[in-house]
Design a protein that fits this description.
With 194 residues, this protein is of the alpha/beta class. It has a single domain, classed as Rossmann fold. It has a 7-stranded parallel sheet, with helices on both faces.
């Protein structure tokens, strides 16, 4: 399984992020997974990609020419794809991946996983995604999404389809057993025909 890991280009202030990233890679190695990520050597992106290479996990990096030229590219990668802009980067990562993990990160991580969630809602994607909710990192975002359901801007089926855990084994098993929800339009049509 090719798993996209969206994560920070910073390390975060707590060592738990780095230490858990290493454990996550160890587990994915045991399951013979490949990693798809943003191609950088910075922050958690570098921690995850370098440790995966040490574990002989195939790693596919996707980076823009601009970011590569600023010496952020992880030059240890043999599988590096350079694209023109961030939109192409996200599209290529989605194409290469079977499942998606949002590990702690900032606006880029949020943008990447949000695009996958949107694709699932409108029926363009049937691939699973997960929030690695380490240290309660995504609690506020999950509260926002629950409020979106409560206020009628998101369907419960789509919120329920997101795998949420601080345990990589739970996330991986969720990927293996995943059943994609119907699209927003299919669910709404079924509700109006009742």
């Amino acid at each position: 399984m090719n798993i996209a890991v969206y994560c920070g280009s910073n390390f975060g202030k707590n060592e738990i992020y780095k230490n858990t990233a290493l454990k996550m890679v160890d587990y994915l190695a045991k399951e013979n997974c490949s990693i798809v990520y943003g191609g950088s050597k910075a922050g958690l992106m570098g921690v995850i990609s370098n440790h995966a290479l040490e574990k002989n996990i195939p790693v596919y990096g996707v980076i823009t020419h601009d970011l590569a030229s600023k010496e952020l590219e992880n030059e240890k990668l043999s599988n590096i794809i350079k694209v023109n802009d961030i939109r192409e980067r996200k599209a290529k990562m989605e194409e290469l991946s079977d499942a998606f993990i949002a590990f702690p990160g900032g606006c880029g991580t949020l943008e990447e996983i949000s695009e996958i969630l949107t694709s699932i809602q409108v029926g363009y994607s049937t691939k699973p995604c997960a929030f690695f909710n380490l240290n309660g990192y995504y609690d506020n975002l999950l509260s926002f999404l629950q409020n979106a359901v409560n206020e009628g801007f998101m369907l419960k089926e789509h919120l329920d389809s997101i795998i949420v855990s601080d345990d990589i084994e739970v996330i991986y098993k969720g990927f293996v057993n995943y059943e994609a929800p119907k699209s927003k339009w299919e669910i709404l049509k079924a509700l109006t025909n009742c």
